[in-house]
């Protein structure tokens, strides 16, 4: 009985109490996430590329 009551309350909350975002709000949020992900990936790429070049320079000093 507790399981059935749980599902009934969960359904009621999802249908009547949750405010779901509109399609436009979801598109804007997705765009923000994509742009932020691209910027972070670009920063990580630049850091990796720089570190690789710095370490190559340091290794060449000792060989």
What does this structure look like?
The chain is mainly alpha-helical and 63 residues long. It is 87% helix and 0% strand. The chain is built from two helices and no strands. It has helices spanning 2-17, 23-61. The longest helix is centred in the middle third of the chain and has 39 residues, at 23-61. The protein is elongated and about 75 Å long. The mean pLDDT is 96.
Say how many strands there are.
0
Instruction: Tell me the distance between the termini.
Output: 75 Å
Estimated helix fraction: over 70%
- How does the helix and strand content classify structurally? mainly alpha
Count of all domains: 1
The mean pLDDT is 96
Topology:
Blueprint: H1 2-17, H2 23-61
Identify the notable features of this structure and list them briefly.
63 residues; 87% helix; mainly alpha
Q: TL;DR?
A:
The protein has helices at 2-17, 23-61. With 63 residues, the protein is mostly helical.
């Amino acid at each position: 009985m507790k399981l059935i009551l749980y599902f009934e309350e969960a359904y009621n909350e999802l249908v009547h109490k949750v405010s779901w975002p509109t399609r436009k709000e979801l598109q804007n949020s997705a765009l923000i996430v994509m742009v932020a992900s691209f910027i972070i990936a670009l920063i990580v790429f630049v850091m990796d590329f720089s570190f690789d070049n710095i370490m190559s320079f340091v290794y060449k000093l000792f060989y």
